[in-house]
Amino acid sequence: MQSKKICVDFEPVFKQNMRGENDTIEIHVQEFRKSELRVEVCSAGILRIIGERQLADRGSGWSRFVREFKLADQHCLNCIHAKLANGVLNITVPRKYVSPLTPCSDMGKGFLWRLRSIDWGRVLQVSSVLVAAVAIGVGTCLASQHWLKDDVCTKLKK
C-alpha cells in the first residue's frame, strides 16, 4: 500500500534588485539541493521557481514552494542564469540592450527602430536650433522676394 504524499507549502524569503544591466533575484532556500529546485520561463514572460523536497523528520512529508515573477519585454528570456550557493538561489535576468536608433531583429518582420534612453534636454536644444534656422530661412526668402519685387517695379516705372 502506498502512503499518501503530505505537502507543506511555504513562502521563501526573497530579495529582488532591478538596477543595472541585470535584474537579480535572491531566494533563500536552505536545505534544498540543486536537484530539488526548478527554474523555468513560461511563454507569457513569467519566471517560475519551483522547489520540492522530502522532509527528513517526516517519512512521507514534503516541503514545497512555487514563486512567480512577471518579466518585462526588456528582459532576455533566453539568457537567464541561476546558481545555488550556501542556501541562496541567485537568479540573474539580463536586460536586452538596444542602443538608440538601431534595428531590432527580434521584433518580428523587417527592421523596426526603437528609441531607448532619450535625452529630452538634448532633443529640445536641437529642436530649438532647427526651428530658429527654418524661421530665419523663411524670413530671408520672403524678405528677398519683397525687395526684388519692389526693385523690379521701380525700374519699370522709370
Task: Explain how this protein is built.
By secondary structure, the protein is α+β, with helices and mostly antiparallel strands. It has one helix and ten strands; from the N terminus they run E-E-E-E-E-E-E-E-E-E-H. It has one helix at residues 120-157, and strands at 6-9, 14-17, 22-28, 37-41, 46-54, 61-70, 81-85, 88-94, 102-104, 112-114. The strands form three sheets. Strands 1-6-5-4 form a four-stranded mixed beta sheet, with no helix packed on it. The chain is rod-shaped. Residues 4-110 form the SHSP domain. Keywords: Membrane, Transmembrane, Transmembrane helix. InterPro entries: A-crystallin/Hsp20_dom, HSP20-like_chaperone.
Give the helices and strands, then pairings.
Blueprint: E1 6-9, E2 14-17, E3 22-28, E4 37-41, E5 46-54, E6 61-70, E7 81-85, E8 88-94, E9 102-104, E10 112-114, H1 120-157
Parallel strand pairs: 1-6
Antiparallel strand pairs: 2-3, 3-8, 4-5, 5-6, 7-8, 9-10
Q: Tell how many strands the DSSP assignment holds.
A: 10
Cα separation of the termini:
124 Å
Give Rg in angstroms.
32 Å
Q: Strand order within the widest sheet?
A: 1-6-5-4
Family: Belongs to the small heat shock protein (HSP20) family.
Organism: Trapa incisa
Protein name: SHSP domain-containing protein
Transmembrane segments: 123-148
